[in-house]
Amino acid sequence: MPEKVHTHFGDEEESAPKQNLQAVPEPTEPQDAGRKKKRAKKRKRDESNDEPQPKPRDQELPQTVKTLSTKTAQKEEPIVDIQREVPAESEVADAPQPQLANNATKSRPKTKSKPLTDTKTNFTSLREKATKLYELRKKLPIFGHADEIRKNLRDQDVMLLVGETGSGKSTQIPQFLVNEFWCRPTPAKIPQKDGSSKSINVGGCIAITQPRRVAAISLARRVAEEMGTPLGSSSPASKVGYSVRFDTSTSPSTRVKFLTEGMLLQEMLHDPWLTKYSAVVVDEVHERGINVDLVTGFLRNLVSGKREGRGGIPLKVVVMSATADMESLLGFFQEGFKAQPQIQNGETNGATGSKDSVRDISVCHIKGRQFPVKTIYSPEPVHDFVDAALKIIFQIHYKEPMPGDILVFLTGQETVEALENLVNEYAVGMDPSLPRVQVLPLFAALPQAAQQRVFAPAPPRTRKVILSTNIAETSVTVAGVRYVVDCGKAKIKQFRTRLGLDSLLVKPISKSAAIQRKGRAGREAPGQCYRLYTEQDYLTLDETNTPEILRCDLSQALLNMKARGVDDIVRFPFLTRPPREALEKALLQLLNIDALGDDGSISDVGLHIAKLPLTPTLGRVLLAASEHGKECLTDVIDIISCLSVENIFLNTSSEEKKEAAEAARRELYRREGDHLTMLMTVRAYAGENADRKAWAERHLVSHRAMQSVMDVRKQLRTQCRQSKLLPRDDRQDQYHDPAPVPILQSFLCGFATNTARLVPDGSYRTVVGNQTVAIHPSSVLFGKKVEAIMYNEFVFTNRSYARGVSAVQMDWVGEALAGQ
DNA sequence: GAGCACTGC
């Protein structure tokens, strides 16, 4: 065996499995060399970031190994696997859950969740099921805290809750609270603008927000079962429902409602005081998506103000997180209370308790249920984490007993596929007396069927090796994993305000992400986590992930705030305040598209755009298209639907397939560029009535993405009909020839600053800023030279790329820029 | 010559 496989990360007390490792065959030289060169070239990009790279290590590492004391992983939670099933926190090994498996449905509206029983809801069997589940609920770590939690919220309006993995918080908290006296609908008089007052019922329902759709739906399903009630719209008596985009399932009697953060924000646009709710539970705050920052900001204003829009009736707020970083949240809400004058007696209609304690905030820690996971660091910095992972994978496989699958965290599709090939090559010559390995790639762009393979049990005497991107960190849980290999890096998207450019770069992960990854090894049994970096490196990692609000374009968030009546953005209570420059840039962008008036207040155009489920620029394009008539608008809706969805065009590694698909796709290509090509694709897909899936496969188009496109298209058309931009009569599409000029000019209304012109040296330079930009290879205009281009996205990966590109005329660009 | 992960009346 060549020296390079000697790397050993094992425990001191265990002898190095050298002999075994030496049995691992090295692939033949030429192949290996060629492949390595290619890979090295490819990976160079990943590593050529602003981050300092660890020095190349020597060929052989010392066999000393540092082993961190076995700490349990602290983080994480809802954890729903791709099969869209049960949240892991409620899973109990011996739980009988026959129905859950059968009821696994996708979150698409077409496959709406079936009633839990036959057409006639069988309440007796629901109750019996719930009674059984109650025995399991009693064993959850949070169950003993029920009284404490109830008492906290009787006395106080805000509670912060740290719940480790498997504590049961997401499913149990709503059930603890739903029968509290303050959770009943309460009559209240709401003062109106004209001085009169209106009597309504305030409260009665609990909202629980989730960052992801699948989590919202599967938690709702689980809680409905535990409460012995039908789910959502399946029965008017249903007490538990959910609401996510394209799929809302509630009933008139819904008391517990799981929804995505985005959905709650949308509800707040129509009902800023959340009058339907007695409590809002914000779950998974540690993930810190931008929506959760907006939600907490709005909620802080709501709980610390005078609640005039709720007739003085308090709103209870529970903020739940898996990390212990509760101090900043505590400070955040306390600051809100401090800034407000003390509430006088009598103004708090429902709440009892002393005046002073009403404003206190309780903090509650719940232990999780996790097995210990041993951390094993690399003794020296790792230069090539793909090679290092390869060695560790086989070291584990040779040394550790079955069962116990291996989950490897990598940065992206490229590294996943590179390692997949390597492991397969090495596995070919493995000692036949050893268990086999089954390599399973996992990344978001992988077709659904291939993703599902990860969840299938391995064949007998086979160890699964799952090579995954970040998708397995939060969104997907794979059962059976006892070994985690963590490369310590992830691709992170960062919006650079000054350049108006999104960068997708490989960066070191945070400590909390490292803990999260490690925790994946301890869900079913004690596990091990091999970190492909030194303990020293670990200690220098940031504590937490950079909140999205510091990494993204803020225009949509600001428009939402303006639409909610937040006039002074600077005084908005941000959990993390974005830099002034980023706020100004977003305001400027909103001004440019006429969403704001010169005084910074929201315009009619802005109000309209804010209600669309689109970025402000795409919303502006839609409005612009409506001025060119109905045909232009429907065409632009088709294109916008594609742009607001993941990439609809697939790629394949197989050359023959590629050529066949290229040929099939050719009929869709339009020389005007990607926008018109998308239009032709949507038309062809929508016009395919026989077998859309087969059509998609033939054209190497993502069926999954196209289903989302059709969902968005339907939603946008409905909204346009409601706002009278489209006529009500819903005639079947009479396809006209598309008119590229008005379509592209509509796009320029939103994207005038996303334009570049051809310069004499044959490259493109941005019209604003004069930066070099290349047409992305995925574009139909790749390699083409046109007078000027307009693009949907400006992304930096290994260089600056324009994506979603169409040819435009310079004088159109001039007009569009002048119009701003 | 290239595709981290989420999400929206």
From TrEMBL:
<feature type="domain" description="Helicase C-terminal">
    <location>
        <begin position="392"/>
        <end position="565"/>
    </location>
</feature>
<dbReference type="GO" id="GO:0005524">
    <property type="term" value="F:ATP binding"/>
</dbReference>
<keyword id="KW-0347">Helicase</keyword>
<dbReference type="InterPro" id="IPR011709">
    <property type="entry name" value="DEAD-box_helicase_OB_fold"/>
</dbReference>
<dbReference type="GO" id="GO:0045943">
    <property type="term" value="P:positive regulation of transcription by RNA polymerase I"/>
</dbReference>
<dbReference type="GO" id="GO:1990904">
    <property type="term" value="C:ribonucleoprotein complex"/>
</dbReference>
<keyword id="KW-0067">ATP-binding</keyword>
<feature type="compositionally biased region" description="Basic and acidic residues">
    <location>
        <begin position="1"/>
        <end position="10"/>
    </location>
</feature>
<dbReference type="GO" id="GO:0003725">
    <property type="term" value="F:double-stranded RNA binding"/>
</dbReference>
<dbReference type="Pfam" id="PF07717">
    <property type="entry name" value="OB_NTP_bind"/>
</dbReference>
<dbReference type="InterPro" id="IPR014001">
    <property type="entry name" value="Helicase_ATP-bd"/>
</dbReference>
<feature type="domain" description="Helicase ATP-binding">
    <location>
        <begin position="150"/>
        <end position="342"/>
    </location>
</feature>
<feature type="compositionally biased region" description="Basic residues">
    <location>
        <begin position="35"/>
        <end position="44"/>
    </location>
</feature>
<dbReference type="InterPro" id="IPR007502">
    <property type="entry name" value="Helicase-assoc_dom"/>
</dbReference>
<feature type="compositionally biased region" description="Basic and acidic residues">
    <location>
        <begin position="73"/>
        <end position="87"/>
    </location>
</feature>
<dbReference type="InterPro" id="IPR027417">
    <property type="entry name" value="P-loop_NTPase"/>
</dbReference>
<protein>
    <recommendedName>
        <fullName>RNA helicase</fullName>
        <ecNumber>3.6.4.13</ecNumber>
    </recommendedName>
</protein>
<dbReference type="GO" id="GO:0016787">
    <property type="term" value="F:hydrolase activity"/>
</dbReference>
<dbReference type="Pfam" id="PF21010">
    <property type="entry name" value="HA2_C"/>
</dbReference>
<dbReference type="InterPro" id="IPR001650">
    <property type="entry name" value="Helicase_C-like"/>
</dbReference>
<keyword id="KW-0378">Hydrolase</keyword>
<dbReference type="Pfam" id="PF04408">
    <property type="entry name" value="WHD_HA2"/>
</dbReference>
<feature type="compositionally biased region" description="Polar residues">
    <location>
        <begin position="61"/>
        <end position="72"/>
    </location>
</feature>
<dbReference type="GO" id="GO:0003724">
    <property type="term" value="F:RNA helicase activity"/>
</dbReference>
<feature type="region of interest" description="Disordered">
    <location>
        <begin position="1"/>
        <end position="121"/>
    </location>
</feature>
<dbReference type="InterPro" id="IPR002464">
    <property type="entry name" value="DNA/RNA_helicase_DEAH_CS"/>
</dbReference>
<keyword id="KW-0547">Nucleotide-binding</keyword>
<dbReference type="Pfam" id="PF00271">
    <property type="entry name" value="Helicase_C"/>
</dbReference>
<dbReference type="GO" id="GO:0005730">
    <property type="term" value="C:nucleolus"/>
</dbReference>
<dbReference type="InterPro" id="IPR048333">
    <property type="entry name" value="HA2_WH"/>
</dbReference>
